[in-house]
Amino acid sequence: MQSKLLLKYTLLSLVVFISGTVYATDTSKEKEALNLIPEARQFISEHKGRFNGQNISYKVTAGETYLRDKNGKETASIFTFAYTKKNNKKGEVRPVTFIWNGGPGSASTWLHMGAFGPKRVKVPSDAQFPGTPPYPILNTPESILDVSDLVFIDPVGTGFSRALGKHKSKEFWGLKEDAASMAAFIRTWITENGRWNSPRFLMGESYGTTRAAAVAKILENDLSISLNGIIFISQALDYQGSSPYIRDNIISHITYLPTMAAAAAYHGKISPKPENLAAFLNEARVFATDELMPTLFKGNTINKETKKHIRDRLAYFTGLTPSYIDKAELRVRGFHFAKELLRDEGVSIGLLDARYTVDEVDDLKAQPSYDASRAISSAFNSALMTYIRSDLGVDWHRTYLAPADDELSAQWSWRTAPKNKAWEPTYVNTAHDLSKALRINPSLKVFVASGFYDLVTPFFDAEYTLNRHGIKSEQIQFKYYHGGHMMYVNEPTRIDLLNDTRAFIQQQIK
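^ thats the sequence. predicted structure below, dont judge the formating
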């Protein structure tokens, strides 16, 4: 019955008709076996769809772009899914949006199949387990293809992207190395595709926002490539505000409090129940900054009455017991909260999306051993692999790495100084890179999308970060959504996010 309904919906929606024409260049397996670099592989297909009420013919180029050193030698293959409109009107200059996910070590699967591509996987909006295959793959008439071409990028070690020749993947696995490779890709892509005068946007999710800030600085400062806008989805620039697992990190206790309050309200742990969520969360912001922060700063010098007052207010906003907060010394860590909130029910809440729950084996641990919101991962991977093979004609012997290369995480370099120089580890922070890019290009603006229930990159941290570091407030636009890290899995939120992104792009190309 489900498949019949899906077929009926597909036929009636008149969205994304596939022409069936697929072209692929031939690549020699023998060349790869001999460590010789073959020609870049390309799978090209032509499609038609209706997006935001407009009929659009477009080409999809699923293929490799080779990065080269200063001598023209290939260093890496960056695989992308590029959606470009055909039959543009005379004189029309189409914007192009470069899109990546985070990790580090995530392919572009999430943004591709969750919201912004012409097709998406459907998972329950109410944070329920998505079940088993087959997963519904639906047309996305709300995609922003009506206002921008889209290039979904998989960094080295994710998807089909690999180091080439004698180069090793770890050469590209680092905060600075990754940003340099993505900036080099953008310069190569706009050159090879004749898009130097197209309006340009960056879109990143999670670590993808960390990357976007660093890439923006390289483009604006080093390569003289101006941007029209940047879209941050689940902002993560200054990691001090998103590191709740470090006991003495006072800042994270402040930035996480409003998200914990949102999660507690969602799960019915706030009494009395807030009549207005936005007003309740603003109250949590004020308490966190005006009362909790000075109390934690003063430490043992606070008096008993103040400590009791803060404890009781924390109990109110978090839904936790006063006795737990006493034992925590007023320091409720975000990941501990995820285990404690519904401990009496024997379940943990999700980190990426606190609406999800999971029944773990060990109910006594301090924090979850599994993120409940990862339950949707299989649906996204299955949908992507089905879509690129059946619709885009990608038939390749190479393994699509999602998750990433299993060595990437352990070998990732967070250094901001050369290896031959002394370096003291510190919180990751690319907010200063963003500030530099914004000052070089005063027309550049940033759209910031945050989910209320995100316990990995909390929405108050986005405010804390982007209202500091010399960043001008008039260049930042904040939007909030009823969802988590991947807020677009909630259906009403997905529509809102796409409409808000479309409006931002249109605003920045006028």
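Residues 1-28 have pLDDT under 50 and may be disordered.
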